[in-house]
Amino acid sequence: MGTLQSNRLLNNASAHHEFGNVSVKFVPKCFKLNIELSRNRSYGSGKKNFGLIQASASQTSVIDPVLSPSNNGTSDSRKKSNEAALILIRHGESLWNEKNLFTGCVDVPLTKKGVEEAIEAGKRISNIPVDMIYTSALIRAQMTAMLAMTQHRRRKVPIIMHNESEQARAWSQIFSEDTMKQSIPVITAWQLNERMYGELQGLNKQETADRYGKEQVHVWRRSYDIPPPNGESLEMCAQRAVAYFKDHIEPQLQSGKNVMIAAHGNSLRSIIMYLDKLTSQEVISLELSTGIPMLYIFKEGKFIRRGSPVGSNRGWSLCLYKEFSSIQAKVR
Ligand SMILES: O=C(O)[C@H](O)COP(=O)(O)O
Description:
Layout: H1 2-18, E1 35-37, E2 53-55, E3 83-90, H2 95-98, H3 112-124, E4 132-135, H4 139-149, E5 157-160, H5 166-171, H6 177-181, E6 183-188, H7 205-212, H8 214-222, H9 234-254, E7 259-263, H10 265-275, E8 293-299, E9 302-307
Parallel strand pairs: 3-7, 4-6, 4-7, 5-6
Antiparallel strand pairs: 1-2, 3-8, 8-9
Helix pairs in contact: 3-4, 7-8, 9-10
Bound molecules: 3-phosphoglyceric acid.
C-alpha cells in the first residue's frame, strides 16, 4: 500500500511541477495576431484584470487566468497595494470523519453536514474578494472550495484549471475576456493533500487507540517528526506543503492577490506552523476544526493572523484568533 501511494504521489508530482507557473497559452496558427502583454491593474467599479495575454484586432482572445505573479491583477479598490488576504479552510466533515476513520490521502467526499459547513464557511468569507483558489487534489477539499464560493457576494465562477496534459489545457481554454473577469482560477495541487497516514488509513481511530494504546496513537497523530507506520510525519507533510506554499502561493500574495486555500487538517497545520512561526512543540496542540475559515493578512512580507471572518452581514468584522476554540495554538 505504501508503495502504491508513493507512486501515486510521484506521478502527480511531476504533473503539477510541470505546470506550476503557467503563463502562456497557445494561439491558433490561423490567426495573425498582435499580442500584447497587459500588466494593467484595474481597481474600482468592479473592474478586474488577471493580467492577460490579449489578442488585439477582431479575432479571438486566448486568455490564461493563471499568471506569473509579475502580471498583477487584483480586485479590491479598498485594498492597499502591498496587502493581500489569505484564507485557509479545512474541508467540511467527510464520510470518514463521520465514521472516525483515519483518512489521509484516501479520496472521500463530504457528508451532508460537511456540505453545510462548507456553505457556512462561504458565508463568513463572502465579503472578501478572492482572486485565486488553491485546493488539494482530493474531492473533500475541492467540494469545500466550490460550495463556499456559492455564497460569495461577487458571484464569480470558480473554474478548475486542467493542466494535467497539453490537451486538457488546450481543451479548457476560455476565449472571452469578459467571462474571464467573472472567473476565479482554481489550482489543484497534490502537495496540499492530507498527510499520508500509511497503514492507519481506513482504520477506526478509537479501535486503533484501544489496540496500540492512546499514547502511541497520539504520537502518530500529533508528534512532529514521528510518522505512522509507512506514512508521513507532519514534518514530511510540511516539506511538500510548505514548499508548495512558498513556491506557488506566496508569490501570488506578494503580487497583491487574495488567495483562498481549501485543504486538510495536517497540510494546513504545517502551513500555519510556517505562517505563525510555531515550534515543533507548539504545533502539537494546534487543532483545526472542519469548515472554519481562518484569515491572514499578508503585509510587507509578514503574515498577520486576523482570526476568522464572522459572517456575511457584518462585512470585514473579525474575531480575534484567540477567541476561536477551534484553534488552540498558543497565541504569540
Ligand atoms: O486524515 C484524517 O484522518 C483526518 O483528516 C485528520 O486526522 P487527524 O486529526 O487524526 O490527524
